[in-house]
Amino acid sequence: MKKTAEVILSPLLINSYDIKDKIVVVIDVFRATTSICVALESQFKSIITTLKIEDAIKLKKEHNLIAGERDGNKLEGFDIGNSPSEIINYKNSIDEIVLTSTNGTKCIELAYNNFAKEIWIGSLNNVGSIAEKLNKTPENVVFLCAGWKNKANVEDTFMAGKCLNEMKENFDIKSDSCFLAMRLATGETTELLRNAEHYMRLKEKGNLNDLEICMQINTSSKIPKVISFSSGIAYIG
């Protein structure tokens, strides 16, 4: 019997799916999961994510960096925003990032609270590595798209579909959400993503450098995973 794969197009739909004991790949291409992948590629040793702003502030200490945004805007008092370009360019000797975001960090908590067996972090940067690893694992998989404030979006659905197109020989894929994602991912990448609503939103806020990094495909071999979770705080390595 083949393994199964599902795509959850919005976190609002998570209760319609059984993710218990499955690998859940959390996707927030613009920008949280890209920021996490970039941080590991940039030799940061660990990433801590939390949904609550106050938790991120409490976790601030001498040798880490707090990064965060709400509605696409950098949070007041934080070192940087939810920004892969700022992470890459950060010159200080810091080995840990605490990250809170509007959509992506919420999905990490949702996956944990719904008893995922493992929680992986997916972006276009590491889509090939994710697909290759999933093809070799025996577990069923669910792609959890962060979307934007519970609405489905193009970029996260596209990433899930691109991954599934590399997995279809090894998985039993039957759901409409999977087929929608896979069909979307056959389109031309740049044109699709540059017409996405959240691309436009972030572009208007002056985040073009971030967006260019987020659209890069297979620039990372890292597969960030949630190592532990406690009181709404995820530890990723």
Protein architecture, described:
- The protein has 237 residues and is of the alpha/beta class.
- Helix content is 35%, strand content 21%.
- The chain has 10 helices and 11 strands.
- Helix 5 packs across helix 6 and helix 6 packs across helix 7.
- The mean pLDDT is 96.
How do the helices and strands line up, and which of them pair or pack?
Blueprint (H helix, E strand, L loop, with lengths): L2 E6 L14 E5 L4 H10 L4 E5 L2 H6 L6 E6 L2 E2 L9 H6 L6 E5 L3 H10 L4 E5 L4 H10 L4 E5 L8 H12 L5 E2 L3 H9 L4 H6 L2 H8 L3 H7 L11 E5 L2 E4 L1
Parallel strand pairs: 1-8, 1-9, 2-7, 2-8, 3-6, 4-6
Antiparallel strand pairs: 3-11, 4-5, 10-11
Helix pairs in contact: 5-6, 6-7
Q: Radius of gyration, Cα only, in angstroms?
A: 16 Å
Total count of strands: 11
Q: How many helices in DSSP terms?
A: 10
Query: Beta-strand level of the residues, as a percent range?
Result: 15-25%
Write a concise synopsis of the structure shown.
With 237 residues, this protein is an alpha/beta fold. 35% of the residues lie in helices and 21% in strands.
Labels describing this entry:
237 residues; alpha/beta; putative 2-phosphosulfolactate phosphatase; 6-stranded mixed sheet; 5-stranded parallel sheet; 35% helix
